[in-house]
Every structure is written in C-alpha cells, then in structure tokens.
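It is worth pausing here to work through a concrete case rather than discussing structure prediction in the abstract. The textbook approach is simple: state the sequence, then state the predicted structure, then interpret. We follow exactly that order.
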Amino acid sequence: MNNVFLATLILLLNVVCVKAQSEGFTKGDVFVSGTFRVASATEGDLENSIFEISPRVGFFISENIALGGRMAYLQNKSENAVGTTADVASYGAGAFGRYYFTPAQKFSVFGQLGLDYFRSKNSLSDFDTNSFNIGLSAGLNYFVSKHFSLEAVLAFLDYGTSSSSAEGTETRNVVNIGIDFSAITIGLNYKF
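Step two, the predicted structure:
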C-alpha cells in the first residue's frame, strides 16, 4: 500500500511540475483552515462524546514564507451506567511558520515548524495538565480552484512535554522521530 501511495505521489509531482500553472500563493495572501469534529461512540454501556474546533490562519509575509496561528478547544466526555467517568476540556493556541517551495504554482511543497500550548482540565478532579509541543513537518498543497486548495501534512520530528498538577506526577517528555503514515492530515484551505 505504501509503494502505491509513493508511486502515485511521484507521478503526481511529475505531471504537475510539467503543467505548472500560475495559481497558488503570493505575498500578502491569507489562508484559513482548521478542524471541526463532533463524534460519539458507544461500546456496551460506555458512551464517549467528543467536540473539537480548531481554526487556523496563515499570512504570506514574503513570496515563500507564511506565518500563522491557531486556537483550539476540545471537549471529551465519557459516561457509563453509573455516571460520568471523564469530562476533560482542553484549550490551547499555537504558532507556525512555513517555507513554500514554488508557492505561486498550482502545486507546492512546504516545510513547517510549529509550536503549540495546551491546557487540559478534568472537571471530575482538582488537577489540570499543561502541555507544550514543538514539531517539524512537511506538506503538499494543491489548488483545485482559484481559492480552494487541498493540503496534506506529514509530521516527522516532534517533541512534547506535559506536566500535571496532580500530586505525585512527574513531567512527561516525548520525542517522536520518523515518518508515521497513519498520522497524515488532509485538509482544505481557503485563500483570500
């Protein structure tokens, strides 16, 4: 499956580079995207519900460089026959910088450096968690019309640290290096 994906990606790169059009991003462009998710799952008498909203905005400060930020809110609640077992609200903010190779083309490749902060609070307990994350990723952007583009992002270097106010817990540090094809994000951007 990965070989088919890689072969398709290489073929797409060759076709698009040969037939490059002058669509894409230029200095002064603004793009918006983000995540909106409502999910519910039931397993036996356990019900889990998730609500997430995370808008993202980027601005091209030069022909190849975009800077941006995002806000995030996530509510995760679990209930069983006895009552609520977890009710965690997370909110955060992040900033990112991107360098686009061939930004004025219909198809472009970019590298991204991002920094995120999240705070989580469990309403059933008296503790909260603070998390910081820094990550390096690569992505592809393809314009399907003048204002809409499809985007795929693949993270390959990530460092995160989190600490909890719960008594007896220690700071947790996590480093991820490598390519995880199950962690590819696909999105849609709108360019102003």
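Step three, interpretation. The helical segments are 2-18. The two ends are 36 Å apart (CA to CA).
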